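Milestone 3.1: sequence recovery, worked example.
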């Protein structure tokens, strides 16, 4: 290495002036410096490579997110378009729900048609559905045979009094003779108070006779 080159390199790398006169020492120091520079360059390249890889990975993630957002936006636009094209669709769905709810509520309530078939007045029920001796005996809390026996052995007035005394509400009963179409039966007399007839209806319903 010439003296001039040594001086230039030593000044560039800021070496001690004493080294300028020793070419071997200068060459060794320059080699070390160059090796160090090469190592730094390699490290810098590796760092840049890693940074580039990380940036590429982040870029791919961002691209994926953007794509997902675009798809969601397209779906939202389609839904909005369908809503505008069919503005009554929501109201129709609400109407269907209310209709279904009404059907469920109606099915859980007592059948109104059965109640509507019942006559409006207690006397109407009793006039068309008189009580048989069996059911009257149940109401009077006596045996059916006792009812028939008293009907036979007692006078009519006394028998009617006995029926009223045995009835839990004091209702006066009237005996209806057997006909070709209907068996013998019993009904309250025509002037029975409505309050007593209501109690009788309650009893009939409780015993599932009506």
């Amino acid at each position: 290495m010439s003296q001039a080159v040594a001086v230039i390199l030593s000044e560039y790398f800021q070496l001690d002036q004493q080294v300028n006169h020793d070419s071997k020492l200068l060459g060794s120091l320059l080699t070390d410096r160059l090796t160090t520079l090469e190592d730094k360059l390699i490290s810098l390249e590796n760092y840049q490579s890693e940074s580039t890889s990380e940036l590429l990975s982040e870029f791919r993630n961002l691209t994926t997110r953007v794509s997902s957002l675009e798809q969601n936006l397209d779906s939202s636009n389609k839904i909005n378009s369908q809503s505008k094209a069919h503005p009554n669709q929501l109201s129709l769905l609400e109407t269907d729900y209310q209709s279904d709810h009404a059907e469920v509520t109606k099915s859980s309530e007592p059948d109104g048609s059965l109640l509507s078939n019942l006559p409006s007045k207690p006397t109407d029920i009793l006039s068309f559905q008189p009580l048989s001796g069996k059911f009257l005996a149940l109401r009077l809390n006596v045996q059916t045979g006792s009812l028939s026996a008293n009907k036979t052995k007692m006078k009519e007035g006394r028998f009617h009094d006995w029926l009223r005394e045995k009835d839990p509400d004091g209702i006066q009963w009237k005996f209806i003779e057997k006909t070709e179409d209907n068996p013998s039966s019993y009904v309250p007399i025509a002037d029975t108070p409505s309050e007593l007839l209501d109690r009788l209806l309650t009893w009939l319903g409780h015993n599932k006779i009506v």
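Residues 11 and 97 are 92 Å apart (CA to CA). Residues 119-206 form one domain.
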